TrEMBL record:
One of its GO terms (biological process) is DNA transposition. Residues 121-332 form the Transposase IS4-like domain. This is Transposase IS4. Residues 4-75 form the DUF4372 domain. Belongs to the transposase 11 family. One of its GO terms (molecular function) is transposase activity. Keywords: DNA recombination, DNA-binding, Transposition.
Length: 389
């Protein structure tokens, strides 16, 4: 079916042209565009991110050296044309298109099973800070003379799908974004200690019938209401029902909470997990549930490293946000391609190697569904291990 098509063309063929055009028309993205429209910009920047181009000049040079770009749907253009598009074409085009890809990916993975085995929806919520040069990007002032912005993400763990993404200035406190995320009754939300704001946990999760799992802060004041027996051989040291004891915290969160203390046998480190779920019988499941949060850490690493957010192809807010949203679109296209084409390797392996096979003319299944799948191995020290806890 895909004979003669490049791998890049097969991935880009998953784009719903009708939905893409609706996003473009909504912001008049192709107004006055004659030779280089929004679709061309999307294709060129996706190529640049998949192949790890270092800048506009690198993109221009590489495209000029590549033969038969027509079969991949890419135009070789001067860097000045791409730079102008990055400045003028509204970044919200690609934000809106990413949301259409989220809907498609969510439908594809709706029956996916998690390692934990729970039937409830499980989400991870976190943020990542992207550093910028303040001299080049004065709009991104952070603190101490540095520039940065944040990517706040809510991820559906069934397919590692970022269902909610918001870009904010680096100064924005993480807990403030809890007011923005959509909350579903009966679903689990995994968050780190930066989101332990009891008033928001009570208002946005407890009162809406949703469950949260987070890590307790070291200075949390509480009283034990009930202690349940545990199997300490599993690593669980205690499983208690508690009530907050602080003057303000008791008013912000008047209900009881569950505190599970767990020791990681491999490292000897002790973790205290805080949740409002009392229905799960085995406290070890609470610890294992929180461990699944590592999937969102991988998402941030892929966005920063594998889709080349280390180098920006413009310095204005519009150019930077455009690149981020196209990178998110590319990530979602890989998720969709994995399911649509029935690719066996993990999403991590596919995203690592996609740049090496981008212009091969073979069915994508033949490339990936074999024991010798090509994998791009990062240089030593370039990739940190994800933080599990």
């Amino acid at each position: 079916m895909n004979k003669g098509k490049t791998i890049f063309a097969q991935i880009m063929s998953l784009i719903n042209e009708y939905e893409f055009k609706k996003c473009v028309d909504r912001y008049k993205g192709d107004r006055h565009a004659i030779k280089f429209n929004c679709r061309d910009q999307f294709m060129v920047k996706s190529f640049a991110q998949f192949t790890d181009r270092a800048g506009l000049r690198d993109i221009e040079t590489t495209l000029n050296l590549c033969g038969d770009l027509y079969r991949s749907g890419i135009k070789a253009i001067p860097r000045s044309t791409l730079a102008e598009a990055n400045e003028k074409k509204d970044w919200r085009i690609y934000q809106d298109f990413a949301m259409t890809l989220v809907k498609e990916a969510t439908m594809l993975y709706k029956d996916e099973k998690l390692r934990i085995g729970l039937e409830e929806m499980i989400y991870a919520f976190d943020s990542s800070t992207i550093d910028l040069c303040l001299k080049l990007c004065p709009w991104a002032e952070f603190h101490h003379g540095k520039g940065a912005f944040k990517i706040h993400t809510l991820m559906d763990l069934r397919g590692s799908i970022p269902t909610f993404v918001m870009l904010t200035p680096g100064k924005v406190n993480d807990a403030r974004m809890m007011d923005k995320i959509p909350v579903e009754a009966g679903a689990f939300y995994l968050m780190d200690r930066g989101y332990v704001a009891f008033e928001k946990l009570y208002k946005h999760f407890q009162q809406k019938g949703a469950y949260f799992v987070t890590r307790a802060k070291d200075n949390m004041s509480y009283e034990v209401i009930e202690s349940r027996p545990v199997n300490k051989d599993s690593g669980v040291l205690s499983d208690e029902t508690i009530r907050l004891a602080g003057y303000y915290s008791t008013r912000k969160y008047p209900d009881t909470l569950r505190l599970v203390v767990y020791e990681d046998i491999e490292t000897g480190r002790v973790y205290r997990f805080l949740t409002n779920n009392f229905a799960i019988d085995d406290p070890l499941t609470i610890a294992e549930l929180y461990r699944e949060r590592w999937l969102i850490e991988l998402f941030f690493k892929w966005i920063k490293q594998h889709l080349h957010i280390r180098t920006f192809y413009g310095t204005s807010k519009n150019a930077v946000y455009t690149q981020i949203w196209i990178a998110i679109c590319d990530y979602l296209l890989l998720i969709i391609a994995k399911k649509r084409y029935g690719l066996d390797p993990s999403l991590h392996s596919i995203s690592n190697s996609i740049g090496q096979v981008l212009f091969q003319r073979a069915d994508i299944r033949e490339i990936y569904n074999q024991p010798t799948t090509p994998v791009c191995v990062p240089e030593a020290g370039s990739v940190e291990q994800p933080t599990l806890w």
